[in-house]
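Now produce a polypeptide, keeping tokens residue-aligned:
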Amino acid sequence: MTDRRIPRRAALRGIGASLALPLLDRMQAAPTAAPLRSVFIYIPNGVILKAWTPAQTGTDFALPPSLAPLEPVRRHVTVVSGLDRTYVSGTGVHAQCGSCWLTSSPPTEALDGGFPTNVSLDQAIARKTGAETALPSIELSTNNHPDNKETRYFESISWLAPGYAANVEKDPRAAFARLFEAKPGDAASRRLLDSVLEEARALRAGLGAGDREKLDEYLESVRSVERRIEFAEKAAARRDKAAVPAPPSMPDDRGAYIRLMMDLIALAFEQDLTRVATLVIDPERWDSPRTYHGVLDKPEDHHGLTHANSQEAVEKLVKIDAFHVRQFAYFVERLARAKEGDRSLLDSCAAVMGSGLGDGSVHSYKDLPLLIAGSANGALKTGRHVAAPAGTPVANAWLALLKIHGVEKERFADSTGPLKEILA
């Protein structure tokens, strides 16, 4: 067989759509290291710290109840505790903890009507990597509350500049269309793979067995995401029109909605469409009841539970925390299954999940929960619990992540130096 190499940036193209190829053995020589990707996933209203924070540090630690879902992927995850942020008086405690999670600016940088938003960490990274991808960054949210009554500061974690929040996409169908360059609802969007199938078959015929299997798995993963969106759309169409409907194409099941958005991020990374992503699981302080399918037997107000001051409320919150961690564990497994050359997609990632509050019941900005998965091409340690010294700014972790992306800064926000304990 003639050894015809395939360009790394090659894509299958059809009517109004394009689909970048995964890294195949037949492609031109790849770089020594895969592109570094980062994703930041936000959970609101803090956590129950006593059920979240491991009692032991280092690699030999027991997973507490809220982190138990990490067991299958614990070797890939570092738990960081003890990180703080300074609250700037004059704005709401919930509005600031979400909007300033990735900015972490000190009180002297309250440049946005009292809010220290500034440029967020994800956008600082995107300025470095964005010129190399089709999309500098993607910003997603799984907030499908129909009664949006709060301002952008309660659900915006990505900021282009002080006062300028990046627009978030909540609709999986629209996000899918944006990634694959097709308009929502058109023929190319509804059946993306049908428009490129013939080209894929022609390409497949010239591949070795390993590459054929990899291409088939990849195309099926894209089709699987599309099918799940279509199922959600059909379910939405069947709802009673007299009721207040959820936005179309958003799954009713809470976990399915979150996982679907996570799959879209994984696909975007797999195709190298972007190297930076954010996902807001829910906004801060929203008092609308939320259904946590398979976890609680009726809808609950997450924010209200944090202030209920009862053992029953604490037990429910621990279950919700574990539910969020379970979705994160799914995402870590998803990235670990995706192969990029002889390594996994997770190996080139820094996948972060955390909150801008520690103890939500007292609006504490101390001991912020933080999980970091992936070794970021060997730059990060994994499989350990790092307890930062008292008073360590969360911005120290952000500065460390900036540095592994090649962004040379002596400081980021109110950092005092990179958090060396997470660096390899």
Notes: The longest helix spans residues 209-238. Residues 37-170+251-422 form a domain with the Alkaline Phosphatase, subunit A fold (CATH 3.40.720). The mean pLDDT is 86.
